[in-house]
Amino acid sequence: MQGLAEQVVIVTGGAQGIGRGIASYLLDRNVSVVIADKDVEAGQEWAAECNKPERLLFVETDVTDESSIKSCIAAAINRFQRINALVNNAGIADPGRSPIEETSLARWQQIIGTNLTGSFLFAWSLEFRNTMRGRCKKNQIIEKNY
Ligand SMILES: NC(=O)c1ccc[n+]([C@@H]2O[C@H](COP(=O)([O-])OP(=O)(O)OC[C@H]3O[C@@H](n4cnc5c(N)ncnc54)[C@H](O)[C@@H]3O)[C@@H](O)[C@H]2O)c1
User: Tell me: the pLDDT tens digits for 7-36?
Assistant: First the structure.
């Protein structure tokens, strides 16, 4: 990942786990990072511990909710004036842990809504596309859920 210095990257689900690791990696390379995560406690804790607070913005965001995504994008633009890339990392990582007979339809829909629709929704958001267009040579969207 060369050439990212001074860019602005949104990391969904970046308050903990793999997403937090990605955010740390980017911050170490002088990237400004917007953490879009629904876990407020973990997000605020991460923001408080970060040694580059000027480069980190936590925004409470639910990737299954289009209005929440729009608010996150607006907050990112307000703080950093641009968005260069999106890491679609937010997800529920346990679909394989329960046998099908113990998986409720509601749980299944929550997993699909987060891991698939959530990733689509963030990338698809018109505001996001308008934000990316014309500001970087090539759209940069990294998918964790595949
Ligand atoms: N851990 C693994 O072995 C593994 C393997 C394959 C894929 N993945 C994928 O990698 C990603 C990260 O996994 P992890 O192990 O770090 O998981 P994790 O549970 O540690 O972290 C996931 C983060 O996503 C956030 N999140 C969940 N739903 C959200 C929503 N609706 N809106 C915003 N944020 C939301 C959580 O609050 C959490 O901070 C997931 O998408 C997961 O499916 C993980």
Answer: 999 999 999 999 999 999 999 999 999 999
Choice from 11, 16, 18, 142 to test ligand 1 binding pocket (greatest atom count within 8 A of CB):
18
Mean pLDDT of the region 61-66: 96
Distance CA 116, CA 46 (A): 26
CA of 145 to the centre of ligand 1 (A): 9
- Is the model's pTM score more than 0.85? yes
Q: Can you list the domains of the chain with their CATH numbers?
A: 8-143 (3.40.50.720)
Give the DSSP per-residue string, 48-85: HH-S-GGGEEEEE--TT-HHHHHHHHHHHHHHHS---E
Calpha distance 128→72 (Å, rounded): 10
In whole angstroms, give the CA distance from residue 123 to residue 23: 18
Do 72 and 48 touch, CB atoms closer than 8 A? Answer: no
Lookup: tokens for 74? 């607006």
Q: Which residues pair with 63 in a beta bridge?
A: none
Residue 116 Cβ < 6 Å to ligand 1:
no
